[in-house]
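**Fold in tokens:**
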Amino acid sequence: MSMRFWKQIINLQDQFYPDWRKQKPRTLFSTALAGECGEMCGVVTHLDGGGTNTTRYTEEMILEEAADIYIQLVLLLEKSAFTETDFERALISKFAVLHHRLKEKGGLKRNE
């Protein structure tokens, strides 16, 4: 995942909501993140034939929701005093753990 937008997200937030770092608690940001994840799930549900809403859904909406999720994730991490570098390190560490687990298991089989 590209981190090049991290600073742009923070700069935009600072420009239009200059006191956002003073807001408490972080649940404002975690709730926004959860909401965006829910919207992504709703789009996928409708694209795969579920739901009753007559709104037209497109595959591109998945990308739009992914962008919203990333924005809220960056704001939550920044509010939690983590940096872009901290997040990159966490991704690298998590990938190493996942790689090790999958290597030990010989990969995942479809029915596991």
Remarks:
- The CA atoms of residues 11 and 18 lie 9 Å apart.
- The mean pLDDT is 90.
